Each structure stands twice: as structure tokens, then as C-alpha cells.
Amino acid sequence: MTVRHFLSLTDCTPAELNSLIKRASELKKLHKQGMIYEPLKNRVLAMIFEKASTRTRVSFEAGMIQLGGQSIFLSPRDTQLGRGEPIEDSARVLSSMCDAIMIRTFAHQTLETFAEYSAVPVINGLSDDLHPCQLLADMQTFLEHRGSIQGKTVVWIGDGNNMCNTFVQAATQFDFQLRVACPQGYEPDARFVEAAGDRVTIVRDPREAVAGAHMVNTDVWASMGQEDEADARMARFRPYQVSPALLDHAADDVLFMHCLPAHRGEEVSHDLLDDPRSVVFDQAENRLHAQKALLEFLLVE
Ligand code: CP
Ligand code: NVA
């Protein structure tokens, strides 16, 4: 039997992704009604975190408990991975004991190598290239507030980082138009942009980008691992701050999203997260429900 991994949105078909986010909303409803649903009883998720996390850790951990299973939090400080045990060996060992493995890491290749040697599903909990679990929650959030995103105009403002790359892949998988407004030299990865073809446009002016948009997204200007570049990036990205005034140029029913954590006064103005068009806290909550749907998809026959 081939093992299904979730390293990027392209590991699922568009039909699978759409049914995953619908299922996420169903599981959310059941959970809020107090229903007990434990298809993963006695199943174990190992979670390797090489970078910090609040939402990803808590949503996977809470999700496994709610589905009847357990999770194990592993940091390089406490495991032999941190002392140089090869990824290949770690993958064989952990996958002989656990039912799935979530990894948050730096190089995306680490995930690819781990998956190659793992006997159980591997889930990308964020790499330098991609953050597909976040996009499941984002797409679920749009669906719940506005219905299908197919054919809509989505905008990314700021750094062409791991989140932006994932939106580029999402444009194809969920069939929407994506406009990216970023400074020169901070574009999303050319490999993903080329694969997306004419679904993705890159512009420099945030006002031009948001005109008529149905969804506007941004993220931090310096991602985890880029701490040394933070000061230089701050100056370069200043014109790319998202504010309520910028959203006024978008469609009347625009939604604003940010994967969080956010830096008020930097990529978002101090008042933006409290604007009625912002759904960032629904988005964060949906990490729980979307990943429960993902775990069910990968682990329940
Ligand atoms: N959005 C997100 O992945 O948050 P954490 O870094 O807190 O997990
Ligand atoms: N781009 C950010 C996302 C954090 C959830 C980072 O990689 O740090």
C-alpha cells in the first residue's frame, strides 16, 4: 500500500482538497455540538518542531486528543536528530512506532527525505518553502464566510515567502486568480509561479493589487530563520503595510487574513486585526478543524 503524505497542496487533487475543507466544517460543527468522535483511538502522532509554534502545535495536539489519539512533541533539543542522527534513520525508527509524523523544519528537502524513508504519512507543519496546513484552514475560512473561492481574486501583499508560495499553489488547486504585490527581489519561488501559469500576476503597487479583491493576505516581513535580515527587511517592506484604508480599495465584501503571529505596526496597521473585514481569529481556530479532517483523511480507512 502506498503511503499518502501531505508535504504540499499538490499531494492532493483539487477534489480531495475541496472535500477536506468541507469535512473540516462538518467536524467543527460536531465538535461544537459536543459530539464525541474518536476514530483515532490508540493512534499516535509524532511532532518534530525545529522552529517555534503556538497554533500548529496546539491544533495538532488538541486535534489528536479530540479524535481519540495522542501526540508526542519532539524538539531537536531533546532528540538525537539534534545531535546529528540521520533523517533517514530517524524516519525509519519513528515511523515504526507512530502512525503519522508532523514536521516543522527549515529546508523542504528534510521533509522529502523523511517521507521517502517513512512507513507512515508525513505532514508538513511548515518548511522554508511551504505551509500547506495553514492554507487548508484559510480555504475553509473563506468557504465558511463567503462560499466557494473558485474564480475569485485573491491578493498577497509583502514577502514572497513560504505562505505566499503556498497561495501560489492554492491558486491552481482551488482555481482562483492570485495577485502578489511585493518589492523587487522578494518574489515567490519561480518554480511555483511558473507552474501556476496565468493564474498568478506579480505587481509592485499594493493599491493596484487590491483593486476589486475578494481576499487580502499578508504575513511577517522576516520569517523564522531570517532574524538577521529583519532590520533591512523592515525598511524595504514599509510601503507594503496592510491597513483598513488599503482594504477600502478592495471589493466591498473583502476578507482579510493573516496566518499569525502578526506584528502590529509592521505588516499590519495597529487597527487592522480588529477591523470587521478581518477574520484572522476564525482562521486560527480553523487550524484545529482542518487538521482533524486531514488526520482523518490520512489515517482512517
Ligand atoms: N500560523 C502558524 O503556523 O502559527 P504557529 O507558528 O504559531 O504554529
Ligand atoms: N512566514 C512565517 C509563517 C509563520 C507561521 C514563518 O515562516 O516564520
From TrEMBL:
Assigned protein family: Belongs to the aspartate/ornithine carbamoyltransferase superfamily. OTCase family.
Molecular function terms from GO: amino acid binding; ornithine carbamoyltransferase activity
Protein name, as recorded: Ornithine carbamoyltransferase
InterPro entries according to UniProt: Asp/Orn_carbamoyltranf_P-bd (IPR006132), Asp/Orn_carbamoylTrfase (IPR006130), Asp/Orn_carbamoylTrfase_sf (IPR036901), Asp_carbamoyltransf_Asp/Orn-bd (IPR006131), Orn/put_carbamltrans (IPR002292), OTCase_ArgI (IPR024904)
Pathway connected to this protein: Amino-acid biosynthesis; L-arginine biosynthesis; L-arginine from L-ornithine and carbamoyl phosphate: step 1/3
Enzyme class: transferase
Swiss-Prot/TrEMBL keywords: Cytoplasm, Transferase
SUPFAM superfamilies hit by this protein: Aspartate/ornithine carbamoyltransferase
Major localization class: cytoplasm
Catalytic reactions on record: carbamoyl phosphate + L-ornithine = L-citrulline + phosphate + H(+)
Keyword check for Transferase: yes
PANTHER family reported for this sequence: ORNITHINE CARBAMOYLTRANSFERASE, MITOCHONDRIAL (PTHR45753), ORNITHINE TRANSCARBAMYLASE, MITOCHONDRIAL (PTHR45753:SF3)
EC number of this enzyme: 2.1.3.3
